[in-house]
Amino acid sequence: MLGIVEFGVFKMTTHGSEGMGIQQDANFPFSFSSAINLPGFNLGLAEMLDEADDFLFVMDPQGRVLSFKARNGSGLSLFTPSRLMVRDMMPIRARQKFVQALDQVTNGNRFAMFEAMLMLPEKGAAWYEFRLFPTIDHHLVLFIWNINDYKNISSTISNIPFSIEKMIKGWSHALYLRDFETEDHTRRVVTMTMRLAARLGVPEQEMLHLRRGGELHDIGKIAIPDRILLKSGALDEEEWRVMHRHPIIAIDLLTSVPHLGRSLEIPRSHHEKWDGSGYPDGLTGEHIPLSARIFAFADVYDALTSDRPYRRAWSQVDALQYIRKQSGRHFDPSIMPVFIDMLSGG
Q1: Domain boundaries, the chain
Q2: N or C end of the chain: smaller count of CB under 10 Å?
Q3: How far apart (Å, rounded) are the C-alpha atoms in residues 323 and 311?
Q4: pTM of the model
Q5: Residue 33 banded pLDDT, cuts 50, 70, 90
Q6: Quick check: 164 and 257 in contact, CB under 8 A?
Q7: CATH for the stretch 5-164
Q8: Is 97 in the active site?
Q9: Active-site hit among 11, 151, 221, 231
């Protein structure tokens, strides 16, 4: 029988602590007006996409949905259905591609992706990209996003840079739904990194790698389990060990993307520290790529001056004082005065 199915959901608020969000109860119903109300309910993917922009499903290894998240405009919703199989929601052609992608990931691929045109009841024909990848705890994540704009452009333009930008944008959208990190955070740190690099005289041809690397810096968190990624309190020692794997996960995900080599310095090395106490490789001093040393200033500063679940944002004065104290420990001492001057209005 056709009807409106409403779900109790959580509205997600973001505090930017290592990209972690907090779930808070809220009256934020999200209805799928064309959903079919069956025992355990079964939702058609086309009907769902008529009412949301992007979807991200967390599934068990058999493809049974554990939770799914939707974005509609600036709103975010988290759903926890009782029983739902992703393959049963898909039109037959998309279902065949999904089964093939599932087989690829099950057999060891870091991720699989495919495109499919879906006929939506209200919006009509639209192209969607599907990205499937495993998490550390052996769950599966399926991200679905609308790529109509890219399809329209690619009908007249076909080149490698365009394809790379599409790949980056898709991962950024997926991470946003995965851990509810604000896109504003990425924009801020990328802008700040580019400003600092310009002051340091970084050649123009290197700026593209800095921007792409900054946009992808935390993409490895996409495979971190929800119990850690969305934890509202402080992580324990074992949880931190898992979280510290996200730079290597980023490299596993992105190594196969053509022409991204130089851009991967930031995703891999932005948590390294000048004195060698960082991760994942324990690099010291100038063994840390320059791009990652530059990015670290922006990333830490933005973290300090943003609200956290366990503290309020620091003032600029306190944040810059901390960065001064960490010169030669966390940060490259030759870059520190340039960054301080830039943030102080010099």
Answers
A1: 5-164, 182-343
A2: N
A3: 18
A4: 0.83
A5: very low
A6: yes
A7: 3.30.450.20
A8: no
A9: 221
